[in-house]
Write a structure and sequence with these properties.
Pfam families: HxlR. The chain has 209 residues and is α+β, with helices and mostly antiparallel strands. It has ten helices and seven strands. The chain folds into two domains: 65 residues, Orthogonal Bundle (Arc Repressor Mutant, subunit A), CATH 1.10.10.10; 107 residues, SCP2 sterol-binding domain (Nonspecific Lipid-transfer Protein, Chain A, 2-Layer Sandwich). The strands form two sheets. Strands 5-4-3-6-7 form a five-stranded mixed beta sheet, covered by helices on one side. The chain has a two-stranded antiparallel ribbon with strand order 1-2.
């Protein structure tokens, strides 16, 4: 808790979980955090060995923040917290997600048994970010990708929240497309199979009163 217990610390780490980002990108993905607080959190996480600062090579030549190997190991902690927290009856699935949090949610909520034997590549394109996902051996690998090559499926939407009614609400694809602006390119039967791999755990039973 001394390392990640302060407000925003774990969220900063979450945003870096799929690759390095500039200071401005981290702040844009975390509405409500001030530049001062973000600077403090980044400095403390760097001192703790959770992340490092480095310069991207030319022509970019900008400073980015990146998790260390130890920092990336915290994804297992985030997944456990994610599976635990969504069981709350107060969990609101309509609250906005950042692109990274949506991708990490898919990595957390995939059913490995259902995914066994399925091999495919999937692209996700949102207004501010894009990702390439590879499903193999029951595991879903996801990385930030700006130059996405040929894939089996492509999901496009302005906001990552557009995919939630389809992946977790199990609503018909055509209905979700009409309501959210989600666009799916590729075999729609395959899209249904892929979306069927993800489901939220059951809500916790409240104690009798």
């Amino acid at each position: 808790m001394e390392i990640i217990g302060e407000r925003w610390s774990l969220l900063v780490m979450r945003e870096l979980m799929l690759g390095p980002l500039r200071f401005s990108q981290i702040r844009a993905n975390l509405p409500g955090i001030s530049a001062k607080i973000l600077t403090e959190r980044l400095e403390k996480l760097e001192v703790a060995g959770v992340l490092v600062r480095r310069m991207l090579p030319p022509p970019a030549s900008v400073q980015v923040y990146e998790l260390t190997e130890w920092g990336y190991e915290a994804e297992f902690v985030m997944q456990a917290l994610g599976r635990w927290s969504v069981r709350s009856r107060k969990h609101d699935p309509t609250l906005p997600l950042t692109p990274v949090s949506a991708m990490l949610s898919l990595r957390t909520m995939i059913d490995p048994a259902r995914a066994e034997g399925m091999d495919m590549t999937v692209a996700f394109r949102f207004a501010t970010d894009a990702f390439a996902a590879k499903l193999a051996g029951g595991e879903l690998e996801i990385e930030r990708a700006h130059d996405i090559r040929k894939t089996d499926l492509v999901f496009e939407a302005a906001s990552p929240n557009a995919i939630l009614p389809y992946f977790y609400g199990k609503r018909p694809l055509a209905e979700v497309e009409a309501e959210t602006g989600l666009v799916v390119k590729g075999d729609r039967v395959l899209a249904d199979r892929f979306a069927g791999l993800f489901r939220l755990p059951a809500k916790v039973d409240l104690p009798a009163t």
